[in-house]
Amino acid sequence: MSIFQDYTRLRHRMVDSQLVPRGIRDERVLEAMRKVQRHLFVGEALRSRAYDDNALPIGESQTISQPYMVALMTELLELKGTEKVLEIGTGSGYQAAVLAELCDKVYTIERIKSLGMRARTILDELGYFNVAVKIFDGTYGWRENAPFDGIIVTAGAPEIPQSLLDQLAVGGRLIIPVGSRGTQELAKVVRTETGFETTTSIGCVFVPLLGAYGWKDNG
Ligand code: SAM
Fold first, then answer.
1. DSSP track, 128-167
2. Measured from the CB, is residue 177 less than 6 Å from ligand 1?
3. Structural domains for the chain
4. 0.85 exceeded by pTM
5. Cα 49 to ligand 1 centroid, rounded to whole Å
6. Is the pLDDT of residue 217 over 90?
7. In the annotation, is 163 catalytic?
8. Which SS3 state, helix, strand or coil, does residue 97 take?
9. Which residue CA neighbors atom 15 of ligand 1 most closely?
10. How confident is the model over 20-52, as pLDDT tens digits?
11. How does DSSP classify residue 145?
């Protein structure tokens, strides 16, 4: 069996054993998780563990999120295929690739240059040309391309940045882990004609969202 076939098998097993039993139901999300080659977004030494049920280090003290968390946050965005989505925290580029399978255009922002550049390279190699990557403090959002139908923050925030709420389209969804530096709850904010409706789901542990409207770098 070739390496490629082996990773395909591991990826299908990840979906069947980690995502479906925990309640991920959106068939388009499950299909994207079966398709995107997660092992190519981690260093070679970690490839054999790429489909394990946990986050993995990607350098610079950052992580590629657990597959279940990627699937859950993506499902909460309720993507149909036509949307414009903003991601804060490009990291490895994996979440951006999953989003790119499910919407029209992805804008993703990473504050660490080496990570953003590596993500750009792999996204190009895999043909994800509907993803724009910017190196910047993502807590400001990406005003020139707002409003967004979906915003996903893949780092833990002390509170929901007003800057991101301002850039959410009416009817749009913002998914963001909010809480302390150590633990957060996953919040979903829906913008309505008259305001914002917020619900929270599971507890989670993300690296901190650092920046002007996040945690301070030294904190
Ligand atoms: N979505 C990523 C993936 O698929 O690999 C995982 C993201 S990792 C858990 C969180 C990322 O958020 C880190 O790469 C970190 O540098 C980045 N980050 C933290 N604060 C940020 C900010 N203000 N703007 C942009 N990126 C930020």
1. -TTEEEEES-GGG--GGG--EEEEEE-SBBSS--HHHHHT
2. no
3. 3-204 (3.40.50.150)
4. yes
5. 21
6. no
7. no
8. helix
9. 89
10. 999 999 999 999 999 999 999 999 999 999 999
11. G
